[in-house]
Amino acid sequence: MSGFVGVVVSDPSLQGQFTQVELRSLKAKFVSLKRDSGHVTTKNLPGLMKKLRGLHEVVPEEEIAAFLSESYPDSDQEIEFESFLREYLNLQARVSAKEGSATAGGGGAGGRKNSSSFLKSTITTLLHNLNQAEKSSYVAHINTYLGEDPFLKKYLPIDPSGNQLFDLIRDGVLLCKLINVAVPGTIDERAINKKRVLNPWERNENHTLCLNSAKAIGCTVVNIGTQDLVEGRPHLVLGLISQIIKIQLLADLNLKKTPQLVELFDDSKDIDEVLSLSPEKMLLRWMNHHLKKAGYKKTVNNFSSDVKDGEAYAYLLKALAPETSPETTLETKDPDERAKMVLEQAEKLDCKRYLTPKDITEGSANLNLAFVAQIFQHRNGLTSDIKQVTLTQSASRDDVLVSREERAFRMWINSLGVGSYVNNVFEDVRNGWVLLEVLDKVSPGSVNWKLASKPPIKLPFRKLENCNQVVKIGKELKFSLVNLAGNDIVQGNKKLIVALLWQLMRFNILQLLNRLRSHSKGSQGKQITDADILNWANSKVKTSGRTSRMESFKDKSLSNGVFFLELLSAVQPRVVNWKVVTKGEADEEKKLNATYIISVARKLGCSVFLLPEDIIEVNQKMILTLTASIMYWSLLRQPQPEISEASEPSSMASDATSDIGSEDGASTAAPSESEEANSLSDSLSTLTTDDATSNAPAAENGNDATPDAPLAENGNDATPDAPPAENGNDATPGARPAENGNDAT
């Protein structure tokens, strides 16, 4: 198996400024412009550059043209791809410098925007200066939690001063193990390729498993692909590790894990609002709760400038561990000396791992957040006398099911790369904005942003306007919304919100599958239905020589997992290790199989968000999402007819080609696979669709899309090495058309 070769730039320093996903997207746009215009010059390039991420809605076309004319006074001079990349970086740097000076004071809305949640921020390449302090802290974390791992212990501890971390990342095992440390049980270790030397195929599988699993626990990985991990790109690796570690550190900052947190809220607080708080906001509230009790007069609003003098830490440790907190810490006037004393006290609580005195005084936001989270883990100072724990202790089976579905929808939305990060679906969608962002992703151009109001929204009728537009668009997409009104969303009606999100996901996957069908000979405009997905799966298993069959997506025999393992083996024979598969008779065997199925599907390239319990209990919605995602992955790689209509197969072949197909091939793809299939694959990983997709028929979306109708899941993260198909299309995630902000009060 030959190694993957992506878009290669002759200048190594320039190559290192972009991920392969970004390079392929930029290359595709550049080639398209050159094909349409014959030449790329300062006359036609500004129109392309104004749409690019970091420049969209920030720099007008005229200003870009003036900037380019400084380097290219001859407007007819042809610009090559590498020159285009350099000018793009130069423009980004100019914009960053301009924004930096505008927000230097740190106050106002700009300051709040820059202190956004780490989970909301996608891994980007605008700034590549590695933070050695953060790197050292992450290495210490890895050495601590994985030092005794049977497979990794021969490679640990890692020396933080060199490149050992990035070299060790290249085979994918360490990142998979780190994800399991953050959220135990996410990856079935039987699915990880573990041996001393992995071939390119096995390495790619591990990284695909890693990225799909990272998305499934809440990481945002829009701009990173498997090849970036294979190459060990430092800024991308550290960005991903940072998110994984923080998810681990903040895992207990919710009422389900730590019900004592109700102590932070008064009785009048709406419990749904409390549940919707992000882990960071909950940590800040916890910190301020103790600071107030200790007599600290200020309010800490961030983990950077507000803690730089170390005074807040001195008060916090005095409140939580008075036995280790001498008065001299508060009396000290020198911030450096106070920071040193704070860490000496924290070390007695085993809380020093993540930062140095310099990190405190310089206001390193990531490391300070990790430090406070570690203090919370070791001594949260909350009483054991709980006032309102009943809400977290008892739940009906329906409540548990809704909670699991809420998680799946939340992870799916966060994987789209929209501007908002969802912490609790039922609370965060109530102003309508997030739903409009999702609609704009799955059906580009459907949202009238002039009529939308962007958060924070103080006036209730503005929220209702947003939600009414959501319902209006849903009806235009032929969703079944008979009992849903905008006010139901504003009021947080869980059942109806689940029904709406269900249909959004189902619409998206059917739309993508139908786009594949549109390239099929003899498709005759027929739309893919749930029955087609069912028939395809049964046919695939049968033709592989297996005997399993599912009668429907709620067939109870599916609970043992055997059918899905046979389906996965049918689409990729080498991906299932039958030596570790159980018969699925006892409950424990069913769980082992279900866990293995999810990891194998992600390893293959399917971006799925279900849990093992969804397979064991045969959750009809999640079963369909799993089947559809496997189907999509398979269809992208096998252009021969695969879809059956009423048990009769119809032709299903892709005849699309691409100008840059010779440059972009996935290591897991068959040599005959078309470039457009690759592009579709990557579009599904973020569930974004380009204009061609948005024109695809709705595929009977509304016919049975009631709250109990089958849902098609975003199937394939596909070959993350495949071209991005307008992934991150032109603008930053969640960027709006030019009229976006005009009326967004």
Automatic annotation (TrEMBL):
Say where the protein is mainly found.
Answer: cytoplasm
Biased-composition ranges for Polar residues? Answer: 647-660
List the Pfam families.
Answer: CH (PF00307)
Q: Which UniProt keywords apply?
A: Actin-binding, Cytoplasm, Cytoskeleton, Repeat
Query: Entry's PROSITE patterns?
Result: ACTININ_2, CH
- Single GO MF annotation: actin filament binding
Q: CDD domains in the record, alphabetically?
A: CH_AtFIM_like_rpt1, CH_AtFIM_like_rpt3, CH_AtFIM_like_rpt4
Q: Name one GO biological process term.
A: actin filament bundle assembly
Biased composition (Low complexity) is annotated at 666-696
Q: One GO cellular component term, please give it.
A: cytoplasm
Q: Where in the cell is it found?
A: Cytoplasm, Cytoskeleton
The record's region (Disordered) falls at 643-745
Q: Where do the Calponin-homology (CH) domain residues begin and end?
A: 132-249, 277-380, 403-509, 527-635
What is the annotated quaternary arrangement, including any partners? Interacts with F-actin.
Q: What is this protein called?
A: Calponin-homology (CH) domain-containing protein
Q: What is the lineage of its organism?
A: Eukaryota, Viridiplantae, Streptophyta, Embryophyta, Tracheophyta
